[in-house]
Amino acid sequence: MCISPTHFFHNMSVFDTPSPSNSSLESSPFSQDLQQKKCAICFRPAFSNNYGVLTCDACKMFYRRIVILNREYKCKYGGGCAHVAKSTVVKCKGCRYQQCLEAGMTFQPSFAELTNEKDFDAATTVATLRFLDSRRSNAMKTQFTDEDFSLLEVLEKRRMKMKARRSEITNHEWSFFGIYTSIEFLMSLDFMSSLNLNIQDKKILLKHYCVKASLFASAMRAMKEQRNTLMTVDGKEIYPDAILRLKQISPQFLQRIRSLLVMKLIELKITDEEFALVNAIFFCNAALPLSEDGQKTVVTQQKAYSSALLQFCNVESSRNGPTRFTNLLSLLHVINKNFEDVKAMTMLFRIFVKDVSYRKIVTDVI
């Protein structure tokens, strides 16, 4: 589900709903039955239940707007509009909303429907991250590059030239491309173009996290495809059994690399929105040896992403929001463990398997 931070509402009131006037319709049994149904709020014709109460469309949208926009209205007569006007139909928004509540209307908005200023910022953040990750995912599915840049060259030249992928690629090439597309994703984050981050800051940030981002994305894809191990985009084992020919690698160790992170995501039932925000939070690591300006920028950005994640958790699970937030952040330990295992396996390959060549960027980051 894509979050759209912008929502449009019709400007409606109780007076926008016309009464049926066609005499032939009024005489039909069906229309007579409908006419007997009155909105519980304004007593005009109502044809369906909305948020648990029989209401007209105008009252439904009125109630929905107030809840989503988090508006507050107060009656200037202290809630006595109906008595002052000597009518059960009131124009006062405060009293009308109170009538909605007393009638039993209930509505828990989803994160995507919230549009007050704080939630708008959070929704925009999620939408941007999901768009960038979608671009990364599409590149993984359809493209490749033959160019071989170092991490520093990528930072200076910005990107390698992509081409449509027309043939199968090896497991090592899949690993390289997963890392490179994750670098492209991370470099596309707004704050990475900040003048407060020098090239060395960016290099440190990317070197520390790009492989972890690739593993995280691969595990997320496996979970969504209802798999319990890391796989390539074309459905093959990223780390096949052939690796076990290297006696220094045990079956248990290989299985842990394949499944540890995927199984944790399955356990948490992580959503696309949570994945996008958690990924960005983990990337913003101010504990790294960055410049003073770089650290300030990264701290500010991590706080913004963390605030958006907490807001999302509170909206999606109002009672367990903080617990959900904590559980999601605990993923960092699992991602770090997965990375350390992959790093150890890569070192073993370099020592004992001499005929494997690695792209420059892989050598730089693992």
From TrEMBL:
<dbReference type="GO" id="GO:0008270">
    <property type="term" value="F:zinc ion binding"/>
</dbReference>
<keyword id="KW-0862">Zinc</keyword>
<keyword id="KW-0863">Zinc-finger</keyword>
<dbReference type="InterPro" id="IPR013088">
    <property type="entry name" value="Znf_NHR/GATA"/>
</dbReference>
<keyword id="KW-0479">Metal-binding</keyword>
<dbReference type="InterPro" id="IPR000536">
    <property type="entry name" value="Nucl_hrmn_rcpt_lig-bd"/>
</dbReference>
<dbReference type="GO" id="GO:0005634">
    <property type="term" value="C:nucleus"/>
</dbReference>
<comment type="similarity">
    <text>Belongs to the nuclear hormone receptor family.</text>
</comment>
<keyword id="KW-0539">Nucleus</keyword>
<protein>
    <submittedName>
        <fullName>Nuclear Hormone Receptor family</fullName>
    </submittedName>
</protein>
<feature type="domain" description="NR LBD">
    <location>
        <begin position="144"/>
        <end position="366"/>
    </location>
</feature>
<keyword id="KW-0804">Transcription</keyword>
<dbReference type="InterPro" id="IPR049636">
    <property type="entry name" value="HNF4-like_DBD"/>
</dbReference>
<keyword id="KW-0238">DNA-binding</keyword>
<keyword id="KW-0675">Receptor</keyword>
<dbReference type="InterPro" id="IPR001628">
    <property type="entry name" value="Znf_hrmn_rcpt"/>
</dbReference>
<dbReference type="Pfam" id="PF00104">
    <property type="entry name" value="Hormone_recep"/>
</dbReference>
<dbReference type="InterPro" id="IPR035500">
    <property type="entry name" value="NHR-like_dom_sf"/>
</dbReference>
<dbReference type="Pfam" id="PF00105">
    <property type="entry name" value="zf-C4"/>
</dbReference>
<keyword id="KW-0805">Transcription regulation</keyword>
<feature type="domain" description="Nuclear receptor">
    <location>
        <begin position="36"/>
        <end position="112"/>
    </location>
</feature>
<dbReference type="GO" id="GO:0003700">
    <property type="term" value="F:DNA-binding transcription factor activity"/>
</dbReference>
<dbReference type="GO" id="GO:0000978">
    <property type="term" value="F:RNA polymerase II cis-regulatory region sequence-specific DNA binding"/>
</dbReference>
